Amino acid sequence: MSEREPQPGPAIPPPLPTSNSGPSHAHAGGEGAAGAEPAREAPAWPWAVPTGGAPAPAPSVPAGGAGPTGTGSDPHQSAGAGATGQGGTGGASASEPGAEQADGPGSGPGGDPDAGAAPEGPFGPADLRGLRFALFRFDEQPEPAPLTVRALPEGRRLGWEPAAAPAVYRVVTADGTRPYSPDDADELVVTAGTAALDDARPRAAVRYYQVWRYEGADLDAVRTAQPVLHAQGRWIVGVQTPHIAVDVQSVVARWQVLPGTVRVHVHRARPSEASHGLSDPRYRVSTQSPNLTGFADSAAHPGERYVYMVLAEVEADGASVLSEAYTATVDIPIRLQPVTDLSFTLHPGRVPTFDLRWSAPEFGRVEVFRTAQPPAAGLGEEPVPISVLSSQGGLTPEDLLSFPVSAGEDGTQLMAGVTWPHGWTRAYFTPVVFSGDEAFVGTTVHGVSVGMVEDARMNERVGRKLISFAWPEGADVVRLYRTRADGDAAAALQTSPLVEVDHSKYRSNGAIVLDDVVERDGARYFLVSGLFSGGAFVQSEPVELDCPPLMILGYEIAHAADQDGTWRGYVRVHSWGSTEHGGVPFVVVYNRERLPLHSNDGTPLPVYDQAGQPGGRFQPEFLPAKSEVASAPMWSFTMGSYGQSIGYIRVFADVAPEQLRRIALLDPAAVMLDLAGYSQLLAAQAAQAGPHQGGPGA
């Protein structure tokens, strides 16, 4: 593969083209980069003898580290939990110019005895072992041919084109600095073939390779020949022993780099975008740090899979170049977050409803459980298997609320208009976030609802009101509020309650009793049931009871005997408050057996006005206050012979029943309504003072 030239800033240019017949692809420490083969077949020389004896054995390479680390050729590399990596020492090579490059580990010096086919020349392995060469005189060198380097599990395979004339090839290496003489570099192998294997671990970020050619028809000619730089290339070393893992929801990595590494470039892309992620600066992360020991990335989106590509930037031959990428595939786990801000809003009424609102979590779906008891303590400390909800938490599928959920513009979710369960006073609502086979229990909220007052009735007496109703289920108290006749509930409930009774007191009295309350101008009452929960008073919707204005009237009766002995009664009506307008007709009713109970309970008596005109009933034009009763018009009626009548009389307002409810007509002393009793009273008085004559007030 070709090297990559970094540019200032985050921009990463595309790879440089190679001069080989096709591109090569390699991952750091992976299966080995498949590069383009030289255009011409190498001679069939099967041996290549490393300097100093037999080649060192290649290291044993495991298929991968513990956990999902993927494949790798370096026993020190790993990709961490949740990451699949490819790469070993993270190296890359480059030829001069356009040589193939790849990554791979090495464990020590050595060559490849099987690098080429069987030679046809005069040099055998025994001839080349321990061969000494003439010192290089720094003659001017022709342009060298490209050297290809490919990473294999056992090391880096070098390949070059054969020379036209018989020759021996001396392969040398240098770390960090390009050699200019084969005598000043580390000798890797002497061979008559066209391939070699390097399994030595580099000591710098750039390893240079040179193949020097010693031409000659025999060994003497080879020993004395001046070397010619036949081919050369370099290998760019990437990060060493990389380890990429997920820590909570951040991706963290650590590695080592060799001397000469300027910085490490990190790119993050989704698998579908990884093919162009190296050439697009938008995919580069951790740009503010050189990342020489690793990086931490907290911007990866949970629930996504990413490919991380790591490239080392080094200085080589006066230019900045990049290694091939070490890649690791990482799955960012979803970390469930519980719902902690569930809110409950009750809408009281005959059929109460409520709303539930919460902030939508980033992951998972939210379900709400409604239970009569709170869930088990400690259930929401961490995600749990779904089966734990019912087996240990008291949250069963039957408790799930199935009402639809709508999304709000502020990132919240709303479940609106949920019917309050009939007969429940208290309920617990628990949000649970589900993902896969896990559930995270959120914060439970407590909802309270109390039923409205039903069957409310007001029984009114003069100066007393009795308010009865069916006691609401679950109510601790019932409060009574009063406001003016045209007032509304909102204004009334802002005031202090007129009365508050608990169930015990209500049962004892049988009603709410209001004494000494006269509504001459009318009033409106509101009954509110409620209960105490968590230090707050939860109340129902108010129930209205109207109390129209009450007209309180009274009347006075007097008796007198006419000259002919006729017993005549006198009546006048007054108001107990201020002077009232007239317009109310009255009737005097006689019942021989008992005190009349209503206007039809007896016989209406003829009534005479002050002019002596008879009528069935009388209707004053005005009703003066009691203190001014002497100014009230007087009406009369007859009852037969004076002192001989028996029975009872009583005055009634002669109006329709619905109007009668708003008129209270107070009776005088009972003796004034009992004709026989009054006759006895008059007889006793007559024995002492003589006959009594005159009307009321006489």
TrEMBL record:
Domain annotation SaeA fourth Fn3-like: ranges: 453-546
Ranges annotated as biased composition (Gly residues): 82-91
Ranges annotated as biased composition (Low complexity): 34-55, 71-81, 114-126
Residues annotated as domain SaeA third Fn3-like: 352-445
Residue ranges annotated for the SaeA fifth Fn3-like domain, each copy included: 550-673
Chain intervals for the UniProt region annotation (Disordered): 1-126
Residues of the SaeA first Fn3-like domain: 146-234
Top-level taxon of origin: Bacteria
Pro residues bias locations: 7-17
Domain SaeA second Fn3-like: 239-330
Protein name as catalogued: Uncharacterized protein
Organism: Brevibacterium rongguiense
Lineage per the UniProt record: Bacteria, Bacillati, Actinomycetota, Actinomycetes, Micrococcales
